[in-house]
Amino acid sequence: MNFVHFMMQNREQVMELTWEHLWLVGVSTLLAVMVGLPLGIMIARWLRWSKPVLAGANIVQTIPSLALFGFLLSAPWLGARADRLAILALTLCALLPVIRNTYTGIRGVDPAVVEAGRGMGLTDRQLLWRVELPLALSVILSGVRVAVVISIGLATIAAAIGAGGLGEFIYRGLAMVNNDLILAGAVPAAVLALSADWGLGWVERRLRPR
Fold this sequence. Notes:
Elements: H1 2-9, H2 11-45, H3 50-62, H4 65-72, H5 76-79, H6 82-107, H7 111-119, H8 124-154, H9 167-176, H10 179-207
Helix pairs in contact: 1-10, 2-6, 2-8, 3-6, 4-6, 6-8, 7-8, 8-10, 9-10
């Protein structure tokens, strides 16, 4: 009951930090899609680039999140703006599922369908936009779904560098040994992650080729 009482008393601050959290996740996911989608298409077309690109994304994924935030602090054009630093770190962490699922989705298109498209006179660009991407869309969206859920969880660490978000409550609660504060950050973050997973999962199922 203390947790519910705290949430009711501080609902304005909870909403403000939730919006900050969503903004960090939304911008970083958008950037990850803008970078990861073309990279996934590129390595699906030119297989010789697939190993280095996926290896690079895997290496970034293995770096502990807090350490990645720390490494980026030394960048002079980022260190002065905690939100920029957090967005870049979250974007890097979200790249792997977007790149990998785009690559897997396009490579998984039935070769017979691709050949049929070529037989109809479609160019490579037309094949990509009219055949491959529509058929791979559910797989690509699955990668975006994973990226969003990862980003929601990792965005709580952004509070450690002053970028805001629901992690503010968690870090403040840890410093004060206050479970209500920790729950005020952890519960809304978990609800956001579950909601995003369910919502994007529903869209993914609707877009799956029948």
